[in-house]
Amino acid sequence: MIHFSINKAIFIQALNTTKRAISHKNAIPVLSTIKIEVNNEGIGLTGSNGQISIEHFISVQDDNAGLLISSTGSILLEASFFINVVSSLPDIVLDLKEIEQKQVLLTSGKSEITLKGKEAELYPRLQEVVKTKPLLLETKLLKDIINETAFAASTQESRPILTGVHFVLTDNQTLKTVATDSHRMSQRKIQLAKDGDNFDVVIPSRSLREFAAVFSDEIETVEVFFSNNQMLFRSQHISFYTRLLEGTYPDTDRLIPTTFNTTVTFDTANLRHAMERARLLSNATQNGTVKLEIQKGIVSAHVHSPEVGKVNEELDILAVDGEDLIISFNPTYLIDALKAVGNEQVKISFISPIRPFTLVPNAEGEDFIQLITPVRTN
Amino acid sequence: MIHFSINKAIFIQALNTTKRAISHKNAIPVLSTIKIEVNNEGIGLTGSNGQISIEHFISVQDDNAGLLISSTGSILLEASFFINVVSSLPDIVLDLKEIEQKQVLLTSGKSEITLKGKEAELYPRLQEVVKTKPLLLETKLLKDIINETAFAASTQESRPILTGVHFVLTDNQTLKTVATDSHRMSQRKIQLAKDGDNFDVVIPSRSLREFAAVFSDEIETVEVFFSNNQMLFRSQHISFYTRLLEGTYPDTDRLIPTTFNTTVTFDTANLRHAMERARLLSNATQNGTVKLEIQKGIVSAHVHSPEVGKVNEELDILAVDGEDLIISFNPTYLIDALKAVGNEQVKISFISPIRPFTLVPNAEGEDFIQLITPVRTN
């Protein structure tokens, strides 16, 4: 029968991290609970939505937590409700004691709150990843890669494999990550500082976004483990499991063009703001596109909505090279692509009005390329 | 045909204030537009939802606005869309010029955006308040009164008059404001610094909340004007019109008890937090109540939800006086009441378990009283 006392703020922080995996309206009712497991080393908190599982461990060694364990055990408590109750407690310390019939008594200051829980045995077994030979990754690097690619994954379930990001390690050191929804594509390559076993997996983009939210920048590195259909990101206190997508990711290498007819260099922020203006009006047009005109060294953007009005704008450019061109595309794809570019300058290269164009940061050494498919307007 | 240039930030600020009156989904389509009227003195912006109307005036005298008027006129523009477009413009200055067929050309930096508008004559005539003999009120005082009363008004349309706040001026100086939804009541009285004509009106609580959002604390005083079914709050730049509620407000004076059997003084914040804890569990009970027990100088709160759990808590009190008592009520009403009390201490006085109890700030000279009706639990 569980009995421990703990610093309230530390406990709430750990509960909130774990809760990120918990969906309030899960088809499996027991997954709306949080699992609390207390042993002599500390407290393990587990939350899951069946796709993602998060385990957060609070150690008795952690001085900030002020964790005193009098008795061990495990129990399930309704996650949202439990966190609300803990957050409302008056004192900076709380005491949690399991009493009869899977009930817990929370004591803090003069407040005594009894909550009904469930048998821990009702919780499903979710994680099956063998923890040997981890790949070591910098958290910040991994979060940058996620920001640069995950947005380009599909949000539609018609081709489930495209809702993920393709992570491939070759030569034990070259990591390639790609996402595409078939209208645009984003690919990032990096050389890892440390060798690892080669792998080829497709990680749900939703899981990657949760990863970025769960692992704060203070956590410098994570260990990465793979199994057949799951992977695990692990830091000192947090284990983040996600299912992998099954199936073969399409060959995207052959999509990337290498020769171009027109190249323009823009200030990234300026171009983004111009596209945001254009989008206000293109949203009210039939095909939702903006027209880019490159003529005699002048680059301009145009939208004409018969109902709402029109935009005509000469764009600030840093350099232009090659043939004149008129091309139409969905400005949202370009805005998303520009948001992913960390560099202040971006180079956009075109082949023709009907072939995808590429975006790369205008900087040496960054192996980051994006592709956007234009829209034929006549 | 309108033509002016203006500082973008000042223009957006005025547009956003005016937009507060505009409902996106109005049954009268023309009310989703903003009316722009330009004369030689400045620009008038008008927005309305039929209940509330806001006019914001930007003067050519206002140096910050940098307003240069080349040509006067008036037009209607789709409010949300127009504000989004103006906000997206690249330069700190924008030029707005009416061109043929009720279209306006916005120019800012190298960006040119044309928007379709409508004839100003299509806009309904909404405001009819004769602007003579204003009552002068401090904005901060009026906002305090609103915070202290408007929350207690009804949100249900079954008795429309109760959705308003009753404002009565007697003896040219005594202002009484009351709101009630028949479960709780809040009454604030003040002596005005300056005399005014007596009045007796019921102002929609929703209008009062908008008033508090529109008039910033920098606006020290407002002039108040009344007509039959409308009133106007006016500052130097903003005219805020609201319809009044028709009908007779119930006599609330007779509801306020004067003799009590039990009185307890609490720390306002402590009691509020205890009630917030209690509410987490009372929400899961059948009648949604918390039970307060006053016995032998000890005050405690109790909730028992057979499904979720229970709360038992001894409350910190500053003083207790009179007979022992057990009383049940909806904690939300007490939480709302405590939020409205600016004072650090609050005095709660009871007659019996079935009679309304009163809350007053535990301070001299504040004429602020609230009433909450208990719930019979057996």
UniProtKB/TrEMBL annotation, chains A, B:
CDD domains: beta_clamp. SMART domains: POL3Bc. Residues 137-251 form the DNA polymerase III beta sliding clamp central domain. GO terms for molecular function: 3'-5' exonuclease activity; DNA binding; DNA-directed DNA polymerase activity. One of its GO terms (biological process) is DNA strand elongation involved in DNA replication. InterPro entries: DNA_clamp_sf, DNA_polIII_beta, DNA_polIII_beta_C, DNA_polIII_beta_cen, DNA_polIII_beta_N. Residues 254-376 form the DNA polymerase III beta sliding clamp C-terminal domain. Its main location: cytoplasm. Keywords: Cytoplasm, DNA replication, DNA-binding, DNA-directed DNA polymerase, Nucleotidyltransferase, Transferase. Gene3D superfamilies: 3.70.10.10, DNA Polymerase III, subunit A, domain 2. Residues 3-126 form the DNA polymerase III beta sliding clamp N-terminal domain. Pfam families: DNA_pol3_beta, DNA_pol3_beta_2, DNA_pol3_beta_3. GO terms for cellular component: cytoplasm; DNA polymerase III complex. It comes from the Bacteria. Confers DNA tethering and processivity to DNA polymerases and other proteins. Acts as a clamp, forming a ring around DNA (a reaction catalyzed by the clamp-loading complex) which diffuses in an ATP-independent manner freely and bidirectionally along dsDNA. Initially characterized for its ability to contact the catalytic subunit of DNA polymerase III (Pol III), a complex, multichain enzyme responsible for most of the replicative synthesis in bacteria; Pol III exhibits 3'-5' exonuclease proofreading activity. PANTHER family: BETA SLIDING CLAMP, DNA POLYMERASE III SUBUNIT BETA. Forms a ring-shaped head-to-tail homodimer around DNA. Belongs to the beta sliding clamp family. This is Beta sliding clamp.
